[in-house]
Each structure stands twice: as structure tokens, then as C-alpha cells.
Amino acid sequence: MDNLTFGIEIEYRDLRRDIVTEFINNHHPRWESRKEDAIIKTTQNPLLGGEVVSPILTDTEENWQELAEICYFFIQNNASSINTGAHIHIGANIFANNSTYFLRFIKLWCSYEHIIYRFCYGDYIYARDTLFEYSKPVSKELKFLIKTLNLSAQDSFDYIVTVLNLGKKRGLNLSNINHNPNKNTIEFRCPNGTFNKDIWHNNFLLFKRMIEYAQSNSYNEVLINNKLLLDYDITDNKIILEDAIEFSNLIYPTEQEKLLFLKQYLKGNEETKEYTLSRK
């Protein structure tokens, strides 16, 4: 999938934005230091905190090294990623306006959203305090719309995207697709913020593999349609190992990737509903 493009937003707290801006401008000028209203409104000092936004990226070693250097800067300067998000955008052109591929992806997301959310808590065992305000789960509503509107691959791509658009503040944000010429992306908003470069890569790889699987000949339509009949309470944060293994076997091509996924999902088998760092 060489034509896949993506972008990331690294949110941070407890570090002056002018210091971050100077570092980015001097060392990583392709990237941009910005204010982030959701961060600023929760701090007493409006000069503290913000986000660093990448340019359009491709999956290369050079780009991941640049991300690692920016994460290291935040760690060295005692910035905080507590109660921040780690949003990832992937260029929607990867679907090539193909209704079949897009509906497959949506159904895959809905079938395993309970697994995806726990995985995307990253370093943490549970969701950040504001996650269910700014990145609400979408599966129940999307499944209702798919069934009620009887959506199928016969419907146009634009129609499907339009009727499934639930707005920006969702874990899966479809509002930019074919509506914003400068940012034609699907946005993944559920990951917790982090300065761990490996977590960033794991999250990106999850979304990339999901898109690849939705476009593959091995897509298991029967299994996914059966999974759509089930509902889960994501706030429970319960480990459902059978589903996690099933999901990883569907989307990841190597045993190493499956093991990395399961390690981040299981988090040492801790199931607390507190926003606390995992010991694993």
C-alpha cells in the first residue's frame, strides 16, 4: 500500500509553546507548532501546552525517526501527555472512492471497536478523562445506520460517507472525507496521547492493516456480518481475549505484529477503569 499517506497531531501539556515552536522551527521545519484549544482551556496558563502537527507523511524510516526525535524533545523537557490525544489522519484517497472497500472497513471497525479502543489506550490502562467527550465510540450508531438505510456496495461512495458522518468528536471521524479539499482524511481520534514512539507506530500500523484487510481478497464477510450483531460496552474495559486474537489474526500478516498488538491490548491483564499507566 505504497500510496497511503498520513499525518499526526502530538498534543502536550506543561511546556511553554514558544519553546516548542522554536525547537520545531529550527530542527523540524516541515512540522508545525500550534495552539490547541482543548488543551489550553484546561490550564491556568494559556502559554502552556499545544500540539505539533506533521506534514503529509508516508510510511518511511526517515519519517518515523523524525517523530522519535520530537517525542524525545518532549520527554527531555518534562512535557506531559496526560489527558491528551494522539490523533492520526490517513488520506481517504486510499479507498479510491470504492464503496465496497469503505463499507468493509466501517463494518470491521464496528465489529471490533471494543478491542480497538482498549488497544489505543496505549501506555494507559483506560481512557483519558476527556476521551468520551471528544472521541466518542461510533459502532452502535453506524450499525444502526447501515441496517436502517440498507447500505450496500451499490450505493455511491459519497452517499455512504455522507450518511455515516457522525461529526468530528468521534473516535472515527469521517467528516473530512471528500468535504475538505485540503484535508481529505479519515481521522482516528481514540488513541490516548503519548510520547512513546513505539506506541505511535503501533497505532498507525493497526489502522493501516485494517484498511489493507478491508481491501484484501481474504476479507471474511460472513464473520464480520455475524460480529455486527453483537454489542459491547466499551466503558467496561474488559479484556476479551478471544476477540482480540481473532481480530489480530484477521488483519496482521506476521506473528511479530500480532504479538505486539496483543501486548499493547492486554496491558499486563489489568482491567481498571482508572486512567493510570500500565505496568507492562
Would you mind describing this structure in some detail?
The chain has 280 residues and is an alpha+beta fold. It is built from 11 helices and 6 strands. It has a 6-stranded antiparallel sheet. The longest helix has 22 residues, at 99-120. It is globular and about 50 Å long.
Q: Describe the global form.
A: globular
User: Low-confidence stretches at least 5 residues in length (pLDDT < 50)?
Assistant: none
Q: What does the largest sheet look like?
A: 6 strands, antiparallel
Mean of all residue-level pLDDT scores: 95
> Structural class of the secondary elements?
alpha+beta
What percentage of the residues does DSSP assign to strands (E)? Answer: 5-15%
Element-by-element helix/strand order: EHEHEHEHHHHEEHHHH
Helical stretch count? 11
Specify Rg, calculated over alpha carbons: 18 Å
Distance between the termini: 32 Å
Quantity of strands, as a count: 6
Short summary:
The protein has 280 residues and is of the alpha+beta class.
